[in-house]
Amino acid sequence: MERLVGSRPASSASKIQRRATPRDRGQTPRGPTKTSSRLNSPLGSHAATDLGSELELITAAIEPTGGTLTVDIEDGDGWDTDLEDVKKLIEKAKPKKSVPKNSKNKKGKKENYPKRKVLSEEEKARLVYIRACIKFSITPSSLFLRGLKKEQINLQNQGLGPLGTQAVALSLVIDRSVTDLVISGNAIGQTGIRYITDMLMINDNISHLDVSDNNLQSYGAQALSNMLLQNDNILSLNASGNHFNRNDALLFAEAIQFYRFSLRVLDLSHNNFETEGGQHLGPALAANDTIEILDISWNHLSSKGVEAVAQGLKENTSIKTLNVSWNGIGDDGALFLVQAANVNETLEVLQMDANRIGPDGLTNLLQELASNKVLLELKISKNPITTLGPESALQVINAHPEMGIQVLEIQDSWLTSEACRLVYDIQELKPKFKVVHGGFTNAHDLIKASIKKREENCMNDPFLFLINYVNDNRLRWMDLFNRLDTDKNFSISYDEFRDGMKANNIPISDKDVQILMERLDEDHDGAIDFGELLEGQKKYLKRFEKVMGVTTSITSSSPSTRQNSRPPSRQRSRPSSRTQSRPTSRQQSRPTSRTDRTAALTIQQKARSDMETYAHTIQSSNESSMKS
């Protein structure tokens, strides 16, 4: 079982702790590590000096000879960085004494020494991480080592702590491949966020950062805002759940309105900005032109704080999605936002869940949006709108078909029969319109909606695209299987399935490929054989017949048979069935049941009696003629 990073090693890891560290070996760095000018942290030189000095000590242990960075490896073997082989990696990370090549032993024979390989940045980053874990007596994380390969590191809830975060930061100073870093829920504290921000002063390749739920407080807000003022490569930041207060909102406001601010996605939810925090953020949004998705939910903004945000939204030209849920804004605050959305020409999604909006307030909101063609989604779940709110809202939407709203989300509200009728009327004019709701007040409406949903799911099934592709190209299912089975091992792996969809221009996404793999792979061996593919086709056709109630469209588009693939002359020369090839008399004389057998006997007896009567008539006529 993998250990959490930051925890003390067990008995097996204690051996690693007893090995000589770089300081024990008394090696000193030969020169300062080359870093960017961003090494001078805005928090002071102390933080940057700590990070730089630790990096110098660790890299000096990897570079015992100075000059080119090398390490001994075995012939034909690469580097194995899985956690199962972490011991091997640690052994390889130990510095080797440089020995001249092809040296001779005492007997005069040449000795073959291992070859030497120049390390890449990725391999060097792994070695630095392993060295840091040994130095700080913590267990290396397999998730981090795998993330260096995938360019996306997800260390959510791994218990890093400050020391584990320092090891990660030291490695990422060198690495230049990672673009996404998730380090949420690790209790990194003020020390950990200092190492992360100092690392981001040097590493300008990371564009997505998640440091949520780390209890950073005001020190973390200052560190993040200062980092954003100098690093213009961060495109997404999630800093929710860090106990930022109203004064910290001012720090983020200063960063947002800075001319070098480049964030596209900003999540500051689950903090304590309160009314004053909203008043700080409002003017900053008016001056910003880069943020596209902003989440400030769960911040106790109230109606006055949201009013300031709405004023800034009127002048903003970039925000497309705004989430102000769980702020207690009421009907007045919601009306401020809707009026701002009418002035703003970019807002497409507005989420106002759990904000004490009543049925009358919902009706007023939609009346204000009657002429808005830009807003596409309105989410107002967990509000006390009762069953009257959806019905009145749908009446407004039905009366204004030019309204741009395509999705109305009221997840905890029920729809009446009248509301269902209004939904169907709206969908005739706007086919993409839908209502996300909590249920129906009428059983008939529930059954009707359930049938409609099943039909939509059946028509949107990704397997239907495979059937259409086979029919349009006049293929057999064996032909499709051979096209997807590129390595000819009589099975289709996930990669072969995905690449085959793209190579044959079949419009199936990677998510749908995963769904089909899970559905067709009945034996759960990670691959699809030909029998599983045919079985999946049969199951889908049965489901289609059951749900849609028709078989003509699917039957006509079924895969071609062997008979249809033969030449026309051979088809005509062979009888279509065994029944038609039999003589007519044989067909009629062969009974198929007891009832048919009895009827056949009756017919035979009647035929015999008719023949006897006919023979008797002929004989009597002949006798009469002879007498005459």
Structure description:
The strands form 3 sheets. The protein has an 11-stranded parallel beta sheet with strand order 3-4-5-6-7-8-9-10-11-12-13. Strands 1-2 form a two-stranded antiparallel ribbon. The chain is flat and about 145 Å long. It has about 625 residues and is α/β, with parallel strands linked by helices. The protein is built from 27 helices and 15 strands. The protein starts with 10 loop residues before the first helix and ends with a helix. Helix 7 packs parallel to helix 8 (about 215-230). Among the domains are: about 1-100 and about 115-205, no CATH class; about 465-560, Orthogonal Bundle (Recoverin, domain 1). About 35% of the residues are buried. About 50% of the residues lie in helices and about 10% in strands.
Topology:
Layout lengths: L10 H8 L26 H18 L7 E3 L13 H8 L22 E3 L2 H16 L5 H9 L1 E3 L6 H14 L5 E3 L6 H14 L5 E3 L6 H14 L5 E3 L7 H11 L8 E3 L6 H14 L5 E3 L6 H14 L5 E3 L6 H14 L5 E3 L7 H10 L8 E3 L8 H12 L7 E9 L1 H13 L4 E7 L2 H17 L3 H10 L4 H8 L7 E2 H10 L6 H11 L6 E2 L1 H19 L3 H5 L5 H4 L2 H6 L4 H4 L2 H6 L4 H34 L1
Parallel strand pairs: 3-4, 4-5, 5-6, 6-7, 7-8, 8-9, 9-10, 10-11, 11-12, 12-13
Antiparallel strand pairs: 1-2, 14-15
Helix pairs in contact: 2-4, 4-6, 6-7, 7-8, 8-9, 9-10, 10-11, 11-12, 12-13, 13-14, 14-15, 16-21, 19-20
